[in-house]
Amino acid sequence: MGSCLVSVFTGLILMQIHQNSECYKIEVTPDRATTVFFRRKGGQDLNCSACKGEGPSETCQNSDLKLDDPVLTTVNFNCSQPGDVFIVEISQDIDCTATGCNNNAVHPDSTRFLDFTRTFIWDVKVPASNTVQLDFPAPGMRQIKPSEHCLNKNTYTIISYRAGRANIGTFCMNGTISRIQVLYKGRVSLEVPKGTDLKPYDFKVSVGPESKMSVEVDSKLPRGESFEDFFTPEYTKGFLREDKIKWNFAVEPSHNFTVKYLDKTEPECQTGAVSIEYLLEDKSVLKKTLKEDPPANKNGDFSMTLANCNAKKGLSLNFEVSVFRGGTPKLCPVDLQKEEGLSLQVEKKNPMSYCEMRMNSLVQEKTVIPERSKVELSFLDCSADDLQLMATKTIDCPSGSPCAVSGTDLTIPSLDTCLPALHQFTWLLRVPEGSIDLSSKQGNLHQSVPEKECNQVTFLVSEIGGSNIGQFCSDIEGSIQNIQIKGNASITAIPKGAQDLSQEKGPLLKAILKPEFSENVVYTVLPLVMGFTYLTTPNWPDGMMPSTSVTWAVVVPSDYRAELVFTNISQPNCASGHAVVEIRPLDSQKIQSWREDQTLPSMVIQQQSFYLNMSNCEPKSKRFAVLSKITLQRETRNFVGIILAVVGILLLLLIIALIVVWVIRKKKKPKANRSSIYMPRGKPILPGNATFPKTRADNDSHVYASIEDQPVVDGNTGHWSNGHQVDTYHPYTGPTDSIPAVKESSPEYTLDRGDGRSEDQDAYQPFLNPTSTFMPARPRTPLISLSSLGLEDRRMAQNELNTFKSTGDIIPIRLSTDESRLQPQLDSDSDSFHEPEYEEAM
């Protein structure tokens, strides 16, 4: 045949050349140890021939064309559609008898011969006593009947050549078979129809162990309920050889299996008999015949070994292995018809767990129970760590509703105890207009930040259809009194650790509908007196949503000042508008403002309550996010005023104390005029005619039954006194040379406490009239021990003679001008005093 003048399309291995509808040309370079066959289909057009080479060296033939030299070869077809006449068979020999094979990956080329039906063949040879091991990665292979086709039209066939050719089976991808071992020599073929894409599937070829089985199949049965079919070799015409075939099945824990014979053809045995042996996980062995029922409802891994006889008529067996969950499921009826707006969702936390969940008898990995529904749940082999329950409650709060008037308490409703632990609860608050005011039922709210995270139930607050506002928790040390959110809001409660939220009793938060405002979020903050109060922009550490704003109303106590520090700042590049930070005192219109292109100060001090507002622009790059903190400090000037006042008071008290001490010391100083008793020559006598019949220690003249104090007015001076003459000195006018006769008188006598005058003023008085002597009358007060002449009367503290002291101190009365001789010996620490001795005056 003459060559065609064509344009060239070049590939790595293949070149296809088209000239016209009557000519088809390709260039092929076979891989090493690979043969490319162009095989003619039976009964096809004989006028289409395949030619090799060009020019004088071109050879054509109407039969198959074989290419095995790894050189570039040109193939010409004298028809326009050679794919309808020829198929391409690419065969590769893999010899593991000398060098061995270590899991060589086999990867079919998906770019060749797309206009032809392709068959890829791998012939693998190993030592006679070993097996060819084929490993199929997940999801494995699935066996089908030879007459069936795979869904993706990529069909695999495995053939054994131990004692003649035997078709082991036909397989598709996505199955339970993970390994097949064929004794001595085997072939794997892959057929892909014309115009079908090849789905590359890498399987591994290696030298398997020695075995007495002609074929051994490993299958890993899936968890849950499944049904898998398996077929004996040469299933269509029957297996004749006296060989053993073994299937190994791996069954998931908590699963049971059942073997069922779907279709069987018993052979006509010349020698031997057909037997089936089951080896269970507990090492027990069950020997059966084809007429006996196979094992059912058993658990654990097992193997099935089929021993054929030497038959004239072949053995065919199609059996099914079904797997289902063992044990008794836990039933859980759920009725949400009574709880308005409540929906539930149950899902498996670990997909690899053996927990099986069903809703209305249907196995599900995640179950959604809509509101106002009634379903039947069941859980099989599910532990507390396998499942998690999430609940959502929708609350509509239109104007005029109880939510708008008195607020609504966000509580977790009672759920069926058969349900798993409640991992998350969400309230969806929907308001047609206005804003939602959130506050804690247990103290204030604390915003969780890395510097101080929540260690209890956390509330994730978000705008519905908007951004995340932040995470909060109820805390006695919280500083947020309430949060106002513009429009609809979502509040999600998340427990700390593995806590069950259904154990939370009572209201957690309170929501009230309030009028709408311009900002997206408004906080009322009562800063902590001790420690830091953190403020973060919504969606922190990510940026605020474009064109949104947030305001904090910070209440500062009167005796404190607030120190506001911006600790973490991210400024955007604005496409339109500006990102602004503003501070305004509560009762002032003076505003401090900074834009995104300005540097915020390190600290701002506010001495009264203030508003802090932050608004974002439409950023073109970066984000607007701010973390700030507030610290309260006592006002310094108040401390200075208090200290000065205290110091002034202390100085005043010190001056007063000094004055008092000085006055007291001055009064204690002895006077120049001292009282004394005149002692004339001779026997000592007292002024007047009075004598002491006995010593003072022997009489009772100093004992009084009672004391009557009645102040009187002195008739001579007009001054008040207690019967004593005070502040006036009268010299002695009595006789000096002659002593009147002394009349004995009773030692007990009384003193006249009248006005100092008797009815008979001319009568002789034993004692001088108080007005004519400096000696005072004896006071009617109890005296201290009379062993001395020191007398005490607290009423005489103001007397210039200081005879009586109000403080109890004893001042002796001097009875002679000779102080050293007449001074009484006073022991202030003793209750007894000695009577002084008097000498005659010279």
UniProtKB/TrEMBL annotation:
Residues 1-23 form the signal peptide. The keyword Membrane applies. Residues 734-758, 816-842 are annotated as: Disordered. Residues 25-96 form the CDCP1 first CUB domain. Coiled coil: none annotated. Pfam families: CDCP1_CUB_6 (PF23665), CUB_CDCP1_1 (PF23667), CUB_CDCP1_2 (PF23668). This is CUB domain-containing protein 1. It comes from Triplophysa rosa.
